[in-house]
Design goal:
By secondary structure, this protein is mainly α. It has one domain. The chain is built from seven helices and no strands. The radius of gyration is 17 Å and the shape is globular.
Length: 155
């Protein structure tokens, strides 16, 4: 994660945005694939949660490239190409089925720590830069509660 952060500081503009989102999507796919290997329910729950994330990441990438003056067909092609990193990561994650259980657990832990690092280091800091009201806080807890209810429904 420190290497990724360092690369993000060295790269500029559109290339940095595309590269870092591609790495993020690959790691998300890796976690998704490993989740399905570990337990079907875990994979399904991750699919639901990651679907929302990928939607917003794609919109963010498209808006970022559009604001940098990219033409719409180039933006669409780039977003589609970067989106392929998610299934590539998922395929790589499902290849972990041949690993011993302790290595599978370590790989799953790495992916989850990478996601937690992103949330705590980047997203939470940026989320608190803007003024927040009760609706923002309520949505956080509603989303968390929804995922817990989905997990219980799948059990």
């Amino acid at each position: 994660m420190l290497v990724i952060r360092s690369a993000g500081k060295r790269l500029d503009g559109s290339i940095a945005l595309i590269t870092l989102i591609g790495v993020d999507l690959f790691i998300d796919g890796l976690v998704l694939g490993i989740g399905f290997v570990a337990a079907y329910q875990a994979g399904l729950l991750l699919t639901i949660a990651l679907s929302l994330e990928v939607l917003f990441v794609g919109v963010t990438l498209a808006l970022g490239l559009t604001n940098r003056g990219w033409r719409s067909n180039k933006v669409l092609g780039t977003v589609a190409a970067v989106g392929l990193f998610l299934p590539l990561g998922a395929v790589a994650g499902t290849a972990a089925v041949v690993l011993p259980s302790h290595l599978l657990t370590a790989l799953f832990a790495f992916g989850l720590v990478a996601l937690l690092y992103l949330v705590t280091e980047e997203l939470l800091v940026e989320a608190h830069q803007a003024p927040e009201g009760p609706s923002v806080t309520s949505m956080f807890f509603a989303g968390f509660l929804l995922l817990l209810m989905l997990e219980e429904a799948l059990a």
